[in-house]
Write a structure and sequence with these properties.
The structure is a single chain. 59% of the residues lie in helices and 5% in strands. It has 35 helices and nine strands. The longest helix is centred in the N-terminal third of the chain and has 33 residues. GO terms for molecular function: mannosyltransferase activity. Keywords: Glycosyltransferase, Membrane, Transferase, Transmembrane, Transmembrane helix. It comes from Scophthalmus maximus (Turbot).
Length: 768
Amino acid sequence: MVAKSRKQTGKSPTTQTDRDKNQLVSPPGKSNARRPGREGKAFPGFHPNGLAGIRHKLGLTPSAVVKHGLTLLLAALTGYLHWLHLSQLFENDRHFSHLSNLEKEMAFRTEMGLYYSYYKTIIEAPSFLDGVHLVMNDRLTEYPLVINTLKRFNLYPEVVLASWYRIYTGVMGYFGIPTKMCWSINRGDGLTPVDSCEGMGDPAYFYVTCVFMLNGVMMSLFFIYGSYLSGSRLGGVVTTMCFFFNHGESTRVMWTPPLRESFAYPFLVLQMLLLTYILRTQNPSKTTMVALGVSNLCFMLPWQFAQFVLLTQVASLFASYILGYLSPTKMQSILVTHMITLAVCFILMFGNSMLLTSFYASSLISIWAIIAMRDHFAQVFKAGIIIWVMQGLAWVGSTVLLKFMLSTILGASDDAHISGLIKSKFTSYRDFHTLMYTCAAEFDFMELETPLRYLKTLLLPINLLVVVLVAGRTFQDLGRFLRGGGKASGKSDEVVVAAGSEVAAKGEFIQTGHVGFSNCFYLQKNVCCQSKEINDCKEVKLVYHSLQLVAFALLAVLIMRLKLFLTPHMCIMASLICSKQVFGWIGEKCKNQIVVFAVMAVMAVQGLANLQAQWAIIGEFSNLPQEELLDWIQDNTGPDSVFAGAMPTMASVKLSTGRPIVNHPHYEDAGLRERTKLVYSMYSRMSGETVKRNLMKLGVDFFVLEDSWCTRRTRPGCSMPEIWDIEDPQNIGKIPLCTHISRNSRRHFTTVFSNDIYKVLEVPKDQR
């Protein structure tokens, strides 16, 4: 039986009870046994003052203060509930609070362990600046190279969290306040007892708690976003309910806290909320544009793939501009903000070339040029479909051309695998690096089960209805414009400007008055288009948000992992069932609310079942074979011994033993991809001598062989030997080298450690 006794005092222990063992199917590395748990946390209160002065300064009436206060209160409540939900799911899945330090580190598998290792480096360094210097001059990650990991791996979240941790523990230590409770854990089954600590003074506990708090704030932003977009607090409720009911499709932060998206996505939500405000404001202030830029920067700095999401945003905005829903002035203001943000990010990332050679950067320049040449387009092409198509083609062509020109000039090839990945989605193209992505389920096409799950919670039907309404009214207005031949209505400039001012407050909505299509309001010398009178402009359409939804849907269909952008945006769009502008045809407010509550009741049937399925996941992390491996490395190899092997395992080796490695899971660097290819030749059908020379060339002392990598096959053509057959066709049909080595390694290597999963091979030194 597993027993737990208090090892260090500092607060009174709570009653310990055995936890239930009701468990669904647990992932590999988890046992059904549970260790006893504890609970109990306290939070300080907050007393606001000066509300009257703030209300007067903001120009709010008492009723408006009450309404906004209620919205913020509900937002805070949803954020708190989401934080609790994430924390409980993570604890239930791993029993994280009862793991030893080594087990906690092993729980951060693959690239999670790599990112966490730099946080560990900074907090264990003599000083914060010493730690930052170590990660900026890293000699362990790609031996024998010295690399700036802050530049390569988007590690600003780890730098910030490490600084907070050092400040927190320093202040608490100064006042003598205990920050963690440590216990002796009897693991049973003949295993040695381990020490387990919990509390904000524990590095891993502090790390995951901060991640979950950030994503709690994200849920508060979702509530505010849904309320603002729909014009109703009920819209915020719908958004958050949809998110909870589709939680497994919306986020994976509860299973993978250290991943880059866990830090970046909350800032994307803030950025899109600010963008919505800007689009709905005729003349957004400089403060608002600065806030947009800061949120944009906070989204880009933690995540190398943020550029692709921002590319879809810029494309959606440009489509809105082409059709006349967005003025050139406002579009250029947004572009300038993006450009400045990109430049600042480039500087903070120490000149990371992937930023400048991205499609996102090229797209910003292309769109700016097209807007600057709008008068020339208007003179050459006829208003209507032709000018729309030509502007779109000009954007695509110039973006692609500029991207490849910049890549050639700067000699950057780090993102070449992305082009290969996209190419493989539409053709039969395959190579080693492309298959390393596409053979993983998360990079495959979206599975059929995903839209079926959307269907069961009504998320898909609601979004389809919203998009159909937006598209229908858009096509009606487009048809009216085209039937009018794109001719001006003959209104005076003053009438047009007045009309434009009245409608501009709803910038992201279709402007069905005199501020019409094909930028005719702006391109034809301020003469308005032939359309309905401005007083008839009461049916608004969320053009930008609908286009962004379509863009996210395309990304998710191509790469299943990116449904983590699609699902939350579908939750945002679902709030529009509470919008008078979109669903005003239902009738008065009471009828609309009845319909909304009826829809939420139907959604709750499957939604609550989804939540119960999440809450029923009970497990405990355990990986004894890897623990044996790491203990052996720590006790039997020198601190300068160099290791190679499977990318996920190498992240754990670096994190828990501090030994140099030659390859790791961060696959976005061209040089690292070639290193990994050399290491993975162990799983090819090449000769042992060839593989040995590859490892000696890299300076490897020990290779960690895993039989599962030799035999694992996610689908036909996706085992490691089959992937190598694409690159090494002359050896097709031979027995893989890893199979020979697992039976007898004496001819080429010396086996120095082995258990059921791992075998450590000593690589002979080069005698030359």
